[in-house]
Amino acid sequence: xxxxxxxxxxxxxxxxxxxxxxxxxxxxxxxxxxxxxxxxxxxxxxxxxxxxxxxxxxxxxxxxxxxxxxxxxxxxxxxxxxxxxxxxxxxxxxxxxxxxxxxxxxxxxxxxxxxxxxxxxxxxxxxxxxxxxxxxxxxxxxxxxxxxxxxxxxxxxxxxxxxxxxxxxxxxxxxxxxxxxxxxxxxxxxxxxxxxxxxxxxxxxxxxxxxxxxxxxxxxxxxxxxxxxxxxxxx
Length: 235
Ligand code: SAM
Description:
- The chain is α/β, with parallel strands linked by helices.
- The chain has 2 domains: 8-166, Rossmann fold (3-Layer(aba) Sandwich); 188-234.
- It contains 9 helices and 7 strands; from the N terminus they run H-E-H-E-H-E-E-H-E-H-E-E-H-H-H-H.
- It has a 7-stranded mixed beta sheet with strand order 3-2-1-4-5-7-6, sandwiched between helices.
- Strand 6 and strand 7 (151-160) form a beta hairpin.
- Helix 6 (171-177) packs across helix 9 (214-234).
- The two termini are 38 Å apart.
- The structure holds S-adenosylmethionine.
């Protein structure tokens, strides 16, 4: 993968960036995504944010190598702290856990003014993001699921709006598995949740052999509930 040929996952994220926008890519590592977006005329300019020194240096080098210093600003900092209020039109956060993406959005809430689209690609725990979107009046507009190199990824696209609209049917199932993804029920979606179902059942079996403490009882209930949600969707 490089800034010319992105991974299938990052290419799918890039496709959701609104044309001619100023995009902030948070957790940018090599800055492949902002470089690709600017080089391909998707974004007019970009900000690449990185909190860790090594990936920050990699992003700086890549932007210099592409000759894009005047179009992409590489900034070191935590989450949305690297952007000014009203600066980007769109934000991409990819390749992290859903809980971390949620925390980045929550901690940087005041920076979201003027942002018209969020494109979020959690590796796991997408439900954390869906819950945050609902609580913060961001309407989930689209969900994608894809498989690359044996791993399954989800992409969530949100815009300000009626945050409850996508969850009119089966709210709890939709938050956990994704309202658009449930409707589409693609082969990749079925593969992901069939695997997850097996995994949860395995954890339950282990918990059934564990001592009967309040904690294990609670954990068993939690897992049983997840199993029920998944089975009801997979049918
Ligand atoms: N976004 C790229 C992608 O999808 O291929 C890189 C993903 S990489 C696994 C996650 C990156 O996010 C790392 O470089 C990490 O240092 C950075 N990161 C993690 N937490 C962050 C935060 N709070 N603010 C900015 N960057 C963060």
